[in-house]
Amino acid sequence: MNPERNESHPEDQVLVSRQWLTQLEEKIARLETRIERAEDIEAIKKLTRIYGYYLDKALWDEMLPLFTPDCAIEVSHLGVYVGTAQAEVLFKKILGTGPAKSDENGLLPGQLYNHLILQGVVHVSDDGQQAQGRWRTFMQMAEFGQRAQWGEGPYEMTYRKMDGLWRIHSLHFYRTFHTPYDESWVTARSPKGGMRENYPPDHPPTVDYEPYPGAFVPPFHYKNPVTGK
Prior knowledge:
The protein is of the alpha+beta class. It is built from four helices and seven strands.
């Protein structure tokens, strides 16, 4: 008696091996993409934190190269400044005329301009070339013996990868409050502000809102991760 034997043909074995190899290659490719995206997110977080450290010491010359040449920057109701030349005007001539005013690159003695960059949420596009991020900054601004202020608000940013390096492509800061230290946000209303005639923006503000005690919520770049709304 010859028992029936279940033997596979060499062709079948080759087919199974090829399918297994294809599945393995696909799995490796997915893992490589996940690793690359995780590295992208970490690089973007580092970039944004570095921006915050340069900003709070008024290191404009170090900070400006972090932006793409065609960047768009909007701070509160100042309007939109496009390109690195206009970004330099915004940071040096407008933002740099407050507690961070200086003829040199960097703060002067007695100046405080702290910007704590917190709560980062970053999403990278499927092709790994663009990204979006939301952050919150808490500000301490002062000139010794003259004035001190609190400030706070969220950022919405976009990023682009150029020559393998991430840069900030757009930045929109929504000021929630900006109040004197002695009054704080208990009694002081935050000024809305507006465009500067001596250093006009390229475009007017894209969003009209009232800062604190108003309760404006800047648009989120992402959907709710649970509801999808």
